[in-house]
Amino acid sequence: MTTASLEAKFQEKVDQEVKIEPRDWMPDAYRKTLVRQISQHAHSEIIGMLPEGNWITRAPSLRRKLGLLAKVQDEAGHGLYLYSACETLGVEREDLFEQLNEGTAKYSSIFNYPTLTWADIGSIGWLVDGAAIMNQVPLCRCSYGPYARAMVRVCKEESFHQRQGFEILLTLSKGTDEQKAMLQESVNRWWWPSLMMFGPNDAESPNSAKSMKWKIKRFTNDDLRQKFVDVCYEQAKLLNVTLPDPDLKWNEERGHFDFGPIDWSEFWDVVKGNGPCNSQRLAARNKAHAEGEWVREAAIAFAEKNKQRNIAKAS
Amino acid sequence: MEQKFQYVQRLADAPLILGQRLCEWCGHGPILEQDIALSNIALDLLGLARNLLQYAAELKGEGISEDDLAFSRPEKEYQNFLLCELENGHWGKTILRQFFFDSFHYFFLNELKNSKDDRLKAIAEKSLKEVTYHLRFSSEWVIRLGDGTEESHAKMQEALNEIWPFTGEFFQVDELDLLMEKQGVAPNLNSIQKSVQQRVAEILTQATLEIPEGTWMQKGGKSGVHTEAMGFLLAEMQFMQRAYPNMQW
Ligand SMILES: [Fe+2]
Ligand SMILES: [Fe+2]
After folding, report:
1. Sequence-separated contacts (24+) of B69-73 with Cβ below 8 Å
2. How far apart are CA A137 and CA A152, in angstroms?
3. In chain A, which residue's Cα lies nearest the Cα of B233?
4. Full-prediction pTM beyond 0.90?
């Protein structure tokens, strides 16, 4: 079969919502796009452990400590599922780690912002996990089978994270003046970076069209962002918190909330490495990786010794 | 009642403080799977501490909560084994510390599940299932790292020499232990010592590690006299209570 006819057959399957599986033929560009997207997603889960991990030892109650630890542990699990999905496309976790540690791989810029107060743990759950869900629920129907299946598991846990974060903030909203101020200050810092999580405006997002055609993506960045703003507006009211955007108001005609312009220069700065915590996040990953090397080597050496012993025993 | 409260609170302190230490690893482990496994152990230990502190709070009454007990005590009122508060060090040291605690904890809970106190009995039964897994995990890793590479062996032997003097405290019996034992609430610590030591020796031998010759043992945790590391651990753990007293979170 010619590449053109293989490609036509591939597209036909995608159009009919038949899942593409690892052994199926797929265009190189499709594979590359998936590896890029899934590995970025996996890295985001792993880097995402750092800002929240920052508060586990300081969580204000046993219940909160357990909740946060379990949540950050879930993120590690998400990373695992996603690295496994990458492996089905022929890319090893170790190589992806290397790219991450070198700083050549991308991950979600949101995790380059600092967690300064306990309220930030709530804001991350509410806004960051909330935005992640918006992005990820459509991925449960992604054309690539292993990714879609990984996302089903991930999304279940993300919605739990989102509720947990919202509940942390709800508790603050019913607390002392100091707690209410902590809540507002935190939402002020996380709101705009959360909107940036959906990526550049559609006009600036060159890969989108192809991803939509391949059914990796189902909605555009701007569509998802709008949906997120609409949902958050109502939730912010429950929290008695003001979203830091003077232009945010209902537009009867559109049936959506209008919102102010996003500071894309900040977004691109952080993507390029100039965010508040970019270097700290990478340094933490590199430190863990370097300090863990002797452990990984020992595990391999021991497994090898054991194998030899078993062979000797058997003979 | 006060004595039982003191005893239950003390039982909680070891898993609380060790769990707190393990939390520091989350996101920084050497292998993703082991990061998850260590967090699991931390979740179990903190869950156990919570169950015990809930019980302790009920025994105390006076509107005291589990979190008052966990977060608002002065250092000298924490009665964990010193071993639990030792700094994490490298991953192998953390694993070795865990292995010593698990070895004790497993045999201890195995006896505590025969307690005449129904609540402690139930807590011990539930926890024993988890701790059985902890002990298996830490034993396997002690062997793997002890008998891995030359480098890992040296690191583990060094950690063992450092930790060893902190492994005698499990069996130091004080008046409260004796009283609780007399009431049928607490196990006899001497009776489990042999089993624990056997298990430890067996695993360390498999790991090709040598038990240090010194017999001098550290003590103080059970009477609230801690290591220099404890103040920093508490400063972090109690940060929110100190910075924002009397609030609900
Ligand atoms: Fe996640
Ligand atoms: Fe999450």
Report:
1. B69/B9, B69/B12, B70/A61, B70/A62, B70/B12, B70/B16, B71/A60, B71/A61, B71/B237, B71/B238, B71/B240, B71/B241, B72/B238, B72/B241
2. 8
3. A57
4. yes
Low-confidence ranges of chain B (pLDDT < 50): none
- Rounded Cα distance, A266 and A263, in Å: 6
CATH 2.40.30.260 fits B2-243, yes or no: no
The three-class DSSP label of residue A251 is strand
Would you kindly state where each structural domain of chain B is located, as residue ranges? 2-243
What b/e readout covers B6-32, taking b as 16+ CB neighbours within 10 angstroms? Answer: bbbbbbbbbbbbbbbbbbbbbbbbbeb
CA dihedral of A44, A49, A52, A53, whole degrees rounded to 10: -160
The model's pLDDT over A214-264, given as tens digits with 9 standing for 90+, comes to: 999 999 999 999 999 999 999 999 999 999 999 999 999 999 999 999 999
With CB atoms and an 8 Å threshold, state whether B152 touches A298: yes
**Are residues B20 and A66, on separate chains, in Cβ contact within 8 Å?**
no
Q: Which of A80, A291, A302 sits opposite B90 (nearest CB)?
A: A291
Query: Are the CB atoms for A245 and A195 separated by under 8 Å?
Result: no
In this structure, are residues A270 and B9 in contact, taking their beta carbons and an 8 Å threshold?
no
* ipTM value: 0.97
In single-letter form, the type of residue at position A222 comes to D
Measure A296 CA to ligand 1 centroid, in angstroms: 25
Cα–Cα distance measured from residue A216 to residue A275, given in angstroms and rounded to the nearest whole number: 29
Query: CA of B191, closest CA in chain A: separation in Å?
Result: 33
- The sign of the CA dihedral A179, A185, A186, A188 is positive
Q: Does A59 touch chain B (CB under 8 A)?
A: yes
The two three-digit tokens of residue B183, written as one number: 């009431």
Specify which residues A250 forms β-bridges with: A257
Going from the Cα of B123 to the center of ligand 2, the distance in angstroms, rounded, reads: 31
**Which of 199-258 (A) contact B at CB < 8 A?**
none
> Does A180 touch chain B if contact means CB atoms closer than 8 Å?
no
8 Å CB contact of A76 and B43: no
Cα-based angle A56, A275, A248 (whole degrees, multiple of 5)? 90
Distance from CA of A301 to the nearest CA of B (A): 5
